[in-house]
Amino acid sequence: MSASTAVEKVNLREALLTRRRARTPAERESAAEAIALHAAALPALARATRVAAYLSLPSEPGTGPLLAWLAGRDVPVLVPVGRADRSMDWVEHTAGAVESGPLGVPEPSGRPLGPGALATCGIALVPALAVDHAGNRLGRGAGYYDRALADFPGVVCALVHDDELLPHVPHEPHDRPVDLVLTPAGVFRPSRDRDV
């Protein structure tokens, strides 16, 4: 990574996290509900028989309503568990079966299915601090998702707040771009050559 890209990522992450912390609980709840409504209209999600998602942090666009909608449709949802080697394992989500992981991130309690379980999902809903118009995703910097999604054959969809969809985010060749972006305002399809 070039030094300038690294600095640009750190500065942008800091600004985005500060903005997220300033959101009110009502704004967060409204965003989560709106994202779930837009997700329900996604063809890639409607046809998926198994979905990868995540348990959101309080400052992230909430996944609770979306997970409840999927549960109501009897769609199995796999959520990640971070491993010591910075890879991810996957556990089938059960409402209420959540604990705090070693990094303070909510994780499912249950039997790990192995890293390869991700490939059984048609779509992966992933966290992001920002996504640009080309689909480049800025995460928190640990690289868990970039590694997990490197060979993922399904659709990758990031969830962000409206003001986190940016014209450009710093990125590198190993950063896995996304195919779709869900915001409270709607669905954004990055300018890439993939039909989703």
From TrEMBL:
<dbReference type="GO" id="GO:0030272">
    <property type="term" value="F:5-formyltetrahydrofolate cyclo-ligase activity"/>
</dbReference>
<dbReference type="Pfam" id="PF01812">
    <property type="entry name" value="5-FTHF_cyc-lig"/>
</dbReference>
<protein>
    <recommendedName>
        <fullName>5-formyltetrahydrofolate cyclo-ligase</fullName>
        <ecNumber>6.3.3.2</ecNumber>
    </recommendedName>
</protein>
<dbReference type="InterPro" id="IPR002698">
    <property type="entry name" value="FTHF_cligase"/>
</dbReference>
<feature type="binding site">
    <location>
        <begin position="137"/>
        <end position="145"/>
    </location>
    <ligand>
        <name>ATP</name>
    </ligand>
</feature>
<feature type="binding site">
    <location>
        <position position="55"/>
    </location>
    <ligand>
        <name>substrate</name>
    </ligand>
</feature>
<feature type="binding site">
    <location>
        <begin position="9"/>
        <end position="13"/>
    </location>
    <ligand>
        <name>ATP</name>
    </ligand>
</feature>
<keyword id="KW-0460">Magnesium</keyword>
<dbReference type="GO" id="GO:0005524">
    <property type="term" value="F:ATP binding"/>
</dbReference>
<keyword id="KW-0547">Nucleotide-binding</keyword>
<dbReference type="GO" id="GO:0046872">
    <property type="term" value="F:metal ion binding"/>
</dbReference>
<dbReference type="GO" id="GO:0009396">
    <property type="term" value="P:folic acid-containing compound biosynthetic process"/>
</dbReference>
<dbReference type="GO" id="GO:0035999">
    <property type="term" value="P:tetrahydrofolate interconversion"/>
</dbReference>
<comment type="similarity">
    <text>Belongs to the 5-formyltetrahydrofolate cyclo-ligase family.</text>
</comment>
<feature type="binding site">
    <location>
        <position position="60"/>
    </location>
    <ligand>
        <name>substrate</name>
    </ligand>
</feature>
<keyword id="KW-0067">ATP-binding</keyword>
<keyword id="KW-0479">Metal-binding</keyword>
<dbReference type="InterPro" id="IPR024185">
    <property type="entry name" value="FTHF_cligase-like_sf"/>
</dbReference>
<dbReference type="InterPro" id="IPR037171">
    <property type="entry name" value="NagB/RpiA_transferase-like"/>
</dbReference>
